Amino acid sequence: MLRHATALLSEARAAAVKAISAAGYRERDIRWCLTVPAAWHEDGERALRRAAGDAGLPAGQERLLLCPEPEAAALYCHLWMTGGPAREPLGPGANGSRFVVVHCGGGTVGLAAYETSGDGSGRIALREIGEPAGGHGILVRPREGEELLDRALDGIVVQIRTYLAELGREDGAPLPETLLLVGGFAASPHLRARLRREFGADHRILVPPDPSRAVVEGAVHLAARPEIVIARRSRYTYGFEIALPWEEHRDPPARRIRSGEGEALCAGRFEIAIRRGDDVTAGAPFPYTVSPTQVEQTSVRVRMMRTRDPAPRYADEEGCEQIGELTVDVNGSTGRPLKERVLLLLLSFGPSGVRAEAIDPITGERSQLSTYHHPTR
Fold first, then answer.
1. Would you tell me which CATH number, out of the four given (2.60.40.10, 3.30.420.40, 1.10.10.10, 3.90.190.20), belongs to the domain 68-232?
2. What CA–CA distance (Å, rounded) separates 101 from 68?
3. Between 370 and 46, whose confidence is greater?
């Protein structure tokens, strides 16, 4: 499977480079965007990145973006509805409009919800308001007839209802007023009629002129302007494993340690940086501070953690996993009081992964880590 993907990507890369080079651009000027199903998780994405690297595509997060198909389609629909041929706003006003992309294509259905967000300058961006979902099969062969088609449509209706119900519970705001149908199957009159019958009383059902092109055109726009998606919803709680002040009657005695200055600490605490369900603004760093626990300590190791639990206390609880590690040389501040040996931790989320940086303000020593563990998948 990986070999087949590598061959396809290599062929696509060669064709794209040839066409773009003919227009006067260099290969190093290209930012690539590969789309993945909404239901994909990191094992699939890591395999895709390996295949892309073997095919000659760049390895860095800034030049190779991975984008969920509904997100690419959402961008296409947003641009089409607000600036394309239709010039019809997604809601009463462009800013603050909420919509769900229903991507029907490739054998599965993907769902993602967004809200338009403006900054007063006329620039509109997208903010994710729910976790993407997907996975329902829609493959129906012509000879199987309308009965199986109806069964497939039943499954799609159930998936949309479930998604809207979960979105209402998690978000608490009014449900999106618009359902946007994209993907090859969105051209089906049976699908359109069924969804209008099931959801038309409460939602507008809209289909762009060429729904099968929504993902690829949206991906092109995203590669050109990755900042247009200003916030995504984190599927995980992210943080660091550190020692925090000991809390009597709450922390177990086995975790109790003492700093070099005699302070009681609890080892192995999960210091939360981003909680599951929080908005994650692309590129915005989340700052935290940590200190060595011993006066003569010459390096500090910081483990980056994640879990599906929204409120973990300890880094070794069930479901917690390490996704990276930073080691900072603090030899230049050895011997100083611990309160003066503060390290700055910066956690940020890019288009395709998580980045952490640790900085020693005294020496300027820096340690960086990039991981392809995506916060929203």
1. 3.30.420.40
2. 11
3. 46
According to DSSP, residue 175 is labeled: P
Sequence letter at residue 87? R
pLDDT tens digits, one per residue of 18-49 = 998 888 888 888 889 998 887 676 677 778 88
Rg (CA), the chain: 24
pTM given for the model: 0.70
**Topology, domain 237-242+273-371:** Substrate Binding Domain Of DNAk; Chain A, domain 1 (2.60.34)
Compute the distance between CA of residue 105 and CA of residue 210 in angstroms, rounded to an integer: 13
For residue 127, what are the contacts with CB-CB under 8 A and spacing of at least 6? 114, 115, 116, 117, 229, 230, 231, 279
Query: Which DSSP symbol is given to 271?
Result: E
Q: How far is CA 342 from CA 102, 334, 359, 360, in A?
A: 48, 12, 9, 7
Residue-wise pLDDT for 287-308, tens only, equals: 888 888 888 888 888 888 999 9
Instruction: Round to whole Å and give the CA distance between 42 and 48.
Output: 9
How large is the angle between the packed helices 145-171 and 189-199, nearest 10 degrees?
A: 40
Nearest Cα neighbor of 49 from 20, 9, 108, 106 is: 9
Widest distance between CA atoms in the chain: 79
Residue pair 80/86 in contact by the 8 Å Cβ criterion: yes
- The tokens of 30 are what? 């290209």
Kindly indicate the confidence band of residue 87, based on its pLDDT and cuts at 50, 70 and 90: very low
Backbone angles phi, psi at 4, to 5 degrees: -65, -45
Instruction: Give the span between the Cα atoms of 249 and 267, in whole angstroms.
Output: 15
Q: What values do phi and psi take at 199, rounded to 5?
A: -125, -5
Distance of alpha carbon 369 from the chain centroid: 18
> What six digits make up the tokens of 43?
């094992």
Number of H helices, E strands in the chain: 6, 19
- Within the chain, all domains assigned CATH 3.30.420.40 are found at 68-232
The mean of the pLDDT values for the chain is 80
For position 364, what pLDDT does the model report? 80
**Whole-angstrom distance, CA of residue 40 vs CA of residue 233:** 16
